[in-house]
Amino acid sequence: MGAGGPAGRYFADPALAAFGGRFYVYPTTDGSPDWSSTSFRVLSSANLREWVDEGEILRLGEDVAWASRHAWAPAAAERNGLYYFYFTAEDNIGVAVATSPTGPFIDSGRPIVAEGAHSGRAIDPSVFIDDDGASYLVWGNTVAHTARLSFDMLSIDEETVTSWTHPTFREAAHIHRRGDLYYLTWSENDTRDPEYRVRWAVGTSPTGPWEDRGVLLEQRPAEGILATGHHSILRLPGIDDWVIAYHRFAIPGGNGFHREIVIDPLRHLPNGDLEPVTPGSAAIRLTSTAIPETLDT
User: Which residue, 231, 223, 178, is CA-closest to 202?
Assistant: First the structure.
């Protein structure tokens, strides 16, 4: 099985989160031509090693009335005792709400970022919550945008939208903070390209300015590891250890439509740099049934 478990299911674009004593990955369901998935699933784990497919959490055209295709690249956040699921659908970004990380999620009824409202494509949302509690939505393809989220997490403050371009920026912008430094990471090249990879930049605020520091994660062709990108970054609860989740071409025989998820350590160096990630050899694997456990870090 690939990083999708039973029946050869594939997953990509992992949004990794930790809620209430358990890890969750919110991915794109992969394995179909032209990324034509119409629903979202969630995976859960107690230890980042053994994963459970918790099932569908949102269906375009059924749970989401305003879009019916291209269920891509989601993200998730917790606030106010609720769970917020941000998702791509038909070049719009939507948001749905649930009382549990595994749903069911209820769509807000309209896009939070509509197609054409800002430059570039409205895809690939991620959420950053700063140390002061301020929350931000980050999104875009060819242009990266950052905006403050409202207190209820269901809208953005249009007056706070900032945009960033770079010759290498393709998609999947993600922000995290450690100490006084903010890190912007993103994917370069096309996801169908074996050279799809992750770059990073550093800044002193969640809106930059950003200083490009080069490649963080890339292919290892000699080991059959290709197209390592579209990531998320998570600090493990209660400790200063970090991990990066990303997808690659499934091994063996994968391509830009058949991808699998890998989770590797991410190391911050004493000088504030990020150590280049050595891509791991093992993709995540699924078990068939959920086993209630507490978080094991």
Answer: 178
> Taking a C-beta distance cutoff of 8 angstroms, is the pair 13, 73 a contact?
yes
Q: Are 93 and 101 in contact (CB under 8 A)?
A: no
> CA–CA separation, 99 vs 265, rounded Å?
30
Neighbours of 185 (CB within 10 A): 24
pLDDT in tens, 218-275: 999 999 999 999 999 999 999 999 999 999 999 999 999 999 999 999 999 999 999 9
Token pair 């770059």 is found at 199
**What length does the chain have?**
297
- Judge contact between 137 and 147, C-beta under 8 A: yes
Cα 187 from chain centre: 11
Token pair, residue 143, equals 């242009």
How far is the C-alpha of 178 from the C-alpha of 287, rounded, in Å? 33
Distance CA 76, CA 87 (A): 9
Q: Tell whether the torsion through CA atoms of 63, 68, 71 and 76 is positive or negative.
A: negative
Q: State the residue for tokens 């719009």.
A: 92
Q: What is the CA radius of gyration of the chain?
A: 17
Locus of tokens 């949004």: 15
